[in-house]
Write a structure and sequence with these properties.
Blueprint: E1 2-3, H1 13-16, H2 22-29, E2 35-38, H3 44-51, E3 56-60, H4 63-71, E4 76-78, E5 91-96, H5 107-117, E6 118-128, E7 134-140, E8 152-157, H6 159-168, E9 172-179, E10 182-188
Parallel strand pairs: 2-3, 2-5, 3-4, 5-6
Antiparallel strand pairs: 1-7, 6-10, 7-8, 9-10
C-alpha cells in the first residue's frame, strides 16, 4: 500500500493467505456465531470458522478475494460493509481483523456501522496496529510492476486510538488482549 505522501506501508499478505496463526486462533475462539468477517480478504478466518461449523460470512470489496473464499467452500459476498448486508442486527460477532478498523478512513463511522449489524449482546473484535498510531491517509495498492489500484481512504489505529474511536461510536470496551505481537480489542454496544 502506498500513501499520498509517498510512504510505502507493508501489507501482511503472507499471513492473510496462510493458515490461521496462534493470534488468529485466539481470535477464532472468541468468535461466536454467526460471524461477519468484514474485509475478509482471501478468507483465512471465514474459512477456518466454516470448517469448525461456526456460521460465518466473509465480506470484501475485492472480487478476486471473494472468489478465493468461495473456492475454499466458505460463504462470502462481494460488497462493502457500508452496503446493505444480510442479517442486520443478528450477527453475534463482527470481525475487523488485520487492521480493517481502517476501512473507509473514519473508524468511528465504521464502528457505528458494525454496531448496527450486531445482535443484542454481540461483540466487535478489532485488531489494532502495533504501537501508538492514529493516522488517516489516502492510499492505493501498488503492484510490483508499478500498476496502481484505485485511491481509497484508510486509517491506522493503535490500541489507544481504537479505544478513542469506540468511545466516539458509543461502544463499550469489554476486553483487550495481546498475542504474538498483535493487539486486539473487543467492544459491545450494550
Amino acid at each position: 500500500m502506498r500513501t499520498a505522501d509517498g510512504r510505502g506501508l507493508p501489507l501482511q499478505i503472507h499471513r492473510w493467505c496462510g493458515q490461521p496463526d496462534a493470534a488468529d486462533e485466539e481470535l477464532l475462539q472468541r468468535s461466536h456465531g454467526p460471524v461477519l468477517d468484514v474485509g475478509c480478504g482471501p478468507g483465512r478466518l471465514t474459512i477456518a470458522l466454516t470448517e469448525r461449523g461456526v456460521p460465518a460470512l466473509g465480506v470484501d470489496i475485492s472480487r478476486a478475494a471473494i472468489d478465493l473464499v468461495r473456492q475454499a467452500g466458505a460463504p462470502a459476498l462481494h460488497r462493502s460493509v457500508f452496503d446493505p448486508l444480510p442479517g442486520l442486527g443478528r450477527w453475534a460477532t463482527v470481525l475487523l481483523a488485520d487492521g480493517n478498523i481502517g476501512i473507509g478512513g473514519l473508524p468511528a463511522r465504521l464502528l457505528r456501522r458494525c454496531a448496527q449489524l450486531l445482535a443484542p449482546g454481540g461483540r466487535i473484535l478489532i485488531e489494532a496496529e502495533p504501537g501508538d498510531v492514529d493516522e488517516r491517509v489516502t492510499a492505493w495498492l501498488e503492484h510490483p510492476d508499478g500498476r496502481r489500484g484505485p485511491v481509497f481512504p484508510w486509517a491506522h489505529l493503535g490500541t489507544a486510538a481504537v479505544l478513542h474511536a469506540a468511545a466516539a461510536a458509543d461502544l463499550r470496551v469489554v476486553d483487550q488482549w495481546h498475542d504474538a505481537g498483535r493487539a486486539f480489542v473487543a467492544v459491545a454496544s450494550d
